[in-house]
Specification:
With about 550 residues, the chain is of the alpha+beta class. The chain is about 20% helix and about 20% strand. A hairpin with a 5-residue loop joins β3 and β4.
Length: about 550
């Protein structure tokens, strides 16, 4: 039996897809929202310190399932490896309603004005595809504001002298400072830095019918049982469903985007929860699957008109895969700095995002989320014991006396860091799997070293009696902050979508997620993904008429 025609199919119910579904449904369009994972409740996701560290041998707490999903990873030596979601080289993001917003740390950064003008600011970087965005911070500012107020952001960035202009303050105040926060804030001021309360997609007071954070230690990588961590699963998706214009279908795996003889999209072929192949006809399709799965879907959507995949006429789909090369430092103190007040991350500086001598870009620096004992067991200074009685003694002595400062270094995009579809390996449903390959640009590592040394200076000034650096390697960076594989641009020869996230040669096909990022900023990208989703939705609605675009 044929499925009923709808105005829009949105593939992926994460940070972007949930927002697009709500915006279109509220405007009166009929919407089907497809999600490959489940809609979990926090009570289905018990606080398991081992399994909830996102990537462990015990599985992926928020999907996808190891038994059905695999990828191929090509290492720096050209060796191919079949990897499961529980392995680091899979570069997993959550597969569930809400996507990564169900379990993220919830830092809610706006990118800076220069982050949209990296090529203009720094010039060409040899071996990199560094470029300006086709949109500016000013284009996104009202949509950043909408995300902050509708999804819900707390904090106070009024003391961040480097921030881009904003028209409205954050809707919720920051949390009272923890012991670690106060120590690092006071120290930063002594160093002449400009510390402030980091913005977070987290309720600090009751907001939009949900309660405030209870400040437990189980935050990043965990579901929130008091519903104080704000994602699309508990904000916009329920609003979309309440309109009765949106139908959410979970455990549905997209196979390909369907097109007609004229090259226009006609719908989506997908496997439903019972593994039956279905075809959902629609007037338009929005791909919001992540920067690894969105290019995979486009590349697997081949036809006579698009033999290399949709949007891939010029071989840019899947290129420029970026994450964040995290850099920072750890410190040990001769007094307790831990007081068990979550979530941990709270105080930040943006003094090193730009203007670093001889370097292109930089990173925000902040204290880290609480390192649970399982995490701390992997954090050791050079030469420290890693096993046996001496290891246990180190844990007992230093767990409450250590801290970490780090930041997401803005990576130089690289053309050959990429997502392809593997020519031989297929998943459980017979769909060619994602094939990941590439390396970090050498300049990214130069910036990372600079940022790590600044973090170490901050910790030493705070009284750390021993410090050591946290540095990224040359390996591909495409994990939780993956971006860049369906680049936004004005020139179809060097980008996949236009400035409205519309695929250049298919006017009723959109990619709306971090895939469209030209560069990934020196910040967690979550709020920018949300802002772009509001921005692209606005374009769809203002140009939509009589089941087609004007």
């Amino acid at each position: 039996m044929a499925l009923k025609h709808v105005n829009a199919v949105i593939i992926g119910a994460g940070a972007a897809g949930g927002i697009v579904a709500k915006e279109l449904a509220v405007a009166g369009l009929s919407v089907v929202l497809l999600e490959r994972g489940k809609w979990y409740s926090p009570f289905e996701c018990r606080k398991d310190d081992l399994r909830n560290q996102r990537v462990t041998a015990l599985g992926s707490a928020f999907g996808p399932d190891d038994e059905r999903y695999v990828r191929v990873f090509v290492d720096a030596n050209g060796q191919e490896h079949l990897v499961r979601p529980s392995e680091g080289n899979y570069h997993n993001n959550a597969a569930c309603v809400g996507g990564g917003t169900f379990s993220y740390g919830a830092l809610a950064w706006r990118y800076m004005e220069k982050d949209f003008r990296m090529r203009s600011t720094y010039g060409a970087v040899e071996g990199s595809t560094l470029e300006d965005w086709p949109i500016s911070y000013q284009d996104l500012e009202p949509y950043y504001e909408k995300a902050e107020w509708e999804i819900g952001v707390s904090g106070d960035d009024s003391k961040n002298v480097f921030r881009a202009p904003r028209n409205k303050p954050l809707p919720m105040p920051p949390m009272p400072p923890s012991r670690e926060h106060q120590l690092l804030k006071d120290t930063a001021e002594l160093l002449g830095l400009h510390p402030f309360d980091a913005p977070m997609l987290r309720n600090t007071v009751p907001y939009n019918g949900r309660g405030a954070c209870m400040r437990c230690r189980w935050c990043v990588g965990f579901a929130c049982e008091v519903d104080a961590k704000n994602g699309t699963h508990n904000t916009v998706i329920p609003k979309a469903l309440a309109t009765k214009n949106c139908e959410l279908r979970t455990e549905c795996v997209a196979k390909e985007i369907l097109t007609n003889a004229q090259g226009r999209v006609t719908g989506v072929a997908y496997f439903d929860a019972n593994d039956r192949l279905q075809e959902q006809p629609a007037d338009l399709v929005v791909v919001s699957c992540s920067a690894t799965e969105s290019p995979r879907l486009l590349l697997n959507s081949k036809s006579q008109l698009f033999p290399n995949g949709l949007g891939n006429r010029n071989d840019w789909v899947g290129r420029n895969l970026q994450g964040h090369a995290y850099a920072g430092a750890y410190g040990l103190f001769d007094f307790d700095v831990y007081d068990d007040l979550g979530p941990g991350a709270s105080v930040a500086v943006c003094d090193y995002n730009h203007g670093n001598p001889g370097l292109a870009g930089g990173a925000a620096l902040a204290n880290e989320f609480i390192r649970l004992p399982y995490n701390f067991s992997t954090i050791r200074p050079p030469g420290a014991p890693r096993w046996g009685a001496a290891h246990k003694e180190f844990m007992r002595k230093w767990f409450k006396r250590h801290t970490a400062v780090h930041g997401p270094v803005q990576e130089m995009p690289v053309f050959d860091s990429r997502v392809q579809v593997d020519p031989k390996v297929k998943d459980y449903w017979g769909i060619p799997v994602a094939r990941l390959s590439g390396l970090n640009h050498p300049h990214t590592l130069e910036v990372a070293k600079y940022i790590a040394l600044k973090a170490e200076t901050w910790l030493k000034e705070a009284g750390a009696i021993q410090t050591w650096l946290k540095m990224p390697g040359r390996g591909l960076s495409g994990g939780q902050h993956q971006a860049g594989t369906c680049r936004m641009g004005n020139d179809p020869k060097t980008s996949v979508v236009n400035k409205y996230c519309q695929v250049h040669d298919v006017d009723n096909l959109f990619v709306v997620d971090a895939s469209v990022h030209v560069t990934n900023g020196g910040f967690n990208p979550g709020l920018t993904i949300m802002a772009i989703a509001y921005y692209a939705s606005d374009h769809i609605l203002t140009t939509w008429k009589d089941r087609k675009f004007r």
